[in-house]
């Protein structure tokens, strides 16, 4: 399954989660719920996947963690904020670059309609 196909499938599941839970909960509630829905759908998903930083041939365990990693291809960064800003986009792009992933989804669940809280983040050409 391609990154685009995965993202379409995950976005459908995220919309299901948002429809049921609505806005206003903690990030952890959305992360756990989406993790459950993705796993239940039959996709392989990791939660809090460690992301080391390699600096001058040294692997540094700096505590970076990807919220959800689907099929070892799609990075999902979950937020529950009043608004997304550039630093959240930069965080997601950093995870893509460090892990050599092509596509990420930055999802803010604290919106009235989830379509307003979704950003596709691309590393290179997809």
Index terms:
two-stranded antiparallel ribbon, alpha+beta, 126 residues
- Runs in which pLDDT lies below 50 for 5 or more consecutive residues are none
Tell me the quaternary state.
Answer: single chain
How many helices does DSSP assign? 3
Task: Strand order, main sheet: write it out.
Answer: 1-4-5-6-7
Going by helix content, strand content and strand pairing, the class is alpha+beta
The averaged pLDDT comes out at: 94
What does this 3D model show about the protein?
The relative contact order is 0.19. The longest helix is centred in the first third of the chain and has 19 residues, at 3-21. This protein is an alpha+beta fold. It has a five-stranded mixed beta sheet. Strands 2-3 form a two-stranded antiparallel ribbon. The protein is built from three helices and seven strands. Helices cover 37% and strands 28% of the residues. It has one domain (3-122).
Task: Characterize this entry briefly.
This protein has helices spanning 3-21, 27-40, 86-99; strands at 45-50, 53-55, 58-60, 65-70, 74-79, 103-108, 118-122. It is α+β, with helices and mostly antiparallel strands. The strands form 2 sheets. The protein has a 5-stranded mixed β-sheet with strand order 1-4-5-6-7.
Write the SSE topology.
Elements lengths: L2 H19 L5 H14 L4 E6 L2 E3 L2 E3 L4 E6 L3 E6 L6 H14 L3 E6 L9 E5 L4
């Amino acid at each position: 399954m391609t990154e685009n196909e995965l993202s379409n499938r995950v976005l459908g599941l995220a919309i299901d989660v948002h429809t049921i839970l609505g806005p206003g909960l903690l990030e952890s509630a959305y992360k756990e719920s989406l993790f459950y829905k993705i796993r239940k759908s039959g996709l392989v998903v990791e939660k809090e996947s460690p992301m080391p930083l390699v600096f001058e041939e040294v692997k540094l365990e700096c505590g970076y963690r990807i919220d959800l990693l689907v099929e070892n291809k799609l990075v999902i960064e979950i937020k529950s904020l009043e608004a997304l800003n550039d630093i959240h986009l930069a965080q997601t792009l950093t995870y893509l670059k460090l892990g050599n992933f092509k596509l990420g989804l930055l999802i803010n669940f604290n919106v009235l309609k989830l379509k307003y809280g979704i950003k596709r983040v691309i590393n290179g050409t997809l």
